[in-house]
Amino acid sequence: GRQGRLPGFLASRFWQNGELIRGIGVDDMTAFCVAPSGQGVVYGTGTVSIYQLAGPAGTGTSGQLTLDSVRVAQLLHGDEYNLTTAAISTAGSMLDNRGKSEVPRYHLLFGGSSPASENVPLLQELIADDGGPASRVLIIGRGPLSYTNSLRSVLLAGGASSVEWVIPDAAAGSDATTATLLTESDRFVFAGNDYDELLDFWSDTNGKLLDSLLLNGRVAAFLGSDVRFAGPVVIEGCEIPGAGFYGALKRLPGLGLLQHTAILADAYLDIDLFENTATALPWTLVTEQLCWGLLLHAGCWVAYQPDDTRYRLQIRGEFPLQRWTLSDTRADTATQIRHGAENPRQLAGFENLTLDVLSDTTVFLPASTNTGTGAGFTSLQNTCFQPNPFSENLQILQVPFEQAELIVFDLYGRFIWGGYPMPGQILDTGKWPVGFLLGIWRSPKGQSSGMSLIHH
User: Fold this and answer.
1) What is the mean pLDDT of residues 20-33?
2) CB atoms inside a 10 Å sphere around CB 55
3) Fewer CB atoms near the end CB (10 Å): N or C, the chain?
4) What is the pTM for the complete model shown?
5) Cα dihedral value 50, 261, 444, 124, nearest 10
6) Strand ranges (DSSP E) for 27-160?
7) Residue 377's pLDDT is what?
8) Nearest Cα to 97, choosing from 365, 329, 367, 313?
């Protein structure tokens, strides 16, 4: 609930008062105890989440909420957070995911739900992706037949010349008929698959043939729960109510089409599953030391398309996509076990996660998540500014990204200054408020880094 509602509350406050405020969400069975000094300590089996807007909230073409570079810290039992300085104390260790990148090897589309009727724009894009109707489409999935026929109807209505269907069972892994279907198809739709069956197929002869076809430019779409197969790790158990709460989620090997990204669909399909989808993705990013997570829902889809040395992401639909970037952070997983339970809740803690809520836009995935030289939001402060602390003037020594934008706001989220400073430029800070400030650097490629500033 907090993961979905709290950013919306912060956006509403911005629209009403123009303030970039901080939001704090406290899980059930969890407390955040704050001393008069402003030092807060987390107790309990859940997490305390701290959201800080880094820029204006917006709306998509259909009125959807959009947010850019929201900084998220999620704290576990024993972690501390200072409301005055925003300093975080955690027992977590640095993640080993810096410098990793998504090598643009495949052209992939991901739909936020399974029904054919909710994927019409995505399937039309799949068919027309090369500038004209794709000739032959192969559906890969367990069915049932009524579902497969609904997909076939949408594809044929969209201009596909033929649509075939194969169940990726043990027989299909090596038979000649399936090999011919794969070779003669231009587009592939993964829908309604069973994990064990699909992974066995993928490791067999025809699975390796399909992988080689995709590597050579053919396009694949994954619908609904099948989107989870595309990454290096598959999260199993999200369809079981309370699985994350009782420690029953599983992480299993995926197809590896994306190397450092985990994806979940049907984010808000069932109220009994909200906790699973809200917690499973960050928990997987931390435990597997991945860089990116995508959370989709019905009416949202995204296309990954190679663009030279990086991926171009096209986000479309009536519902926004949540993209989570985890880098330069200390992180850990929950260890507190509630009374009478056998396992801790499957929750992650971290100092620095960037949340983007995207709608009807095109962005480029950075080649690397390495945006600094240290942990959290303080990694560049000693090399970008001089002096720091400062009084009347602040000199820009360097900028961390090409065409970097700098936004400065106070700890209440109020905007102080924004612009595109150049190395050597001196900012007149005489009218800036005294105290701790937060500066956010952002690049046109989606990179971001933050640091503390002290004005005395």
Assistant:
1) 93
2) 19
3) C
4) 0.80
5) -120
6) 30-34, 39-44, 48-52, 58-59, 65-75, 80-82, 88-89, 93-94, 107-111, 136-140
7) 36
8) 329
Sign of CA dihedral 253, 257, 261, 262: negative
Q: Which of 309-318, 387-396, 408-417 shows the lowest per-residue confidence on average (mean pLDDT)? A: 408-417
Answer whether residue 63 shows pLDDT above 90.
no
For residues 215 and 103, is the Cβ–Cβ distance under 8 A?
no
What is the CA 136 to chain-centroid distance, rounded?
32
**Contact by Cβ (8 Å): 3, 355:** no
What pLDDT is recorded for position 374?
33
The set of residues, in sequence order, having a beta carbon less than 8 Å from that of 356 and lying 6+ positions away, is 67, 68, 69, 70, 322, 323, 324, 325, 363, 446
Compute the distance between CA of residue 43 and CA of residue 403 in angstroms, rounded to an integer. 42
Both tokens of 101, joined, read 């990148």
pLDDT digits (tens, 9 = 90+) for 273-307: 888 888 999 999 999 999 999 999 999 999 999 98
Name, in order, each residue with C-beta under 8 angstroms of 453's C-beta and a sequence gap of 6 or more.
381, 385, 388, 390, 394, 408, 436, 437, 438, 439
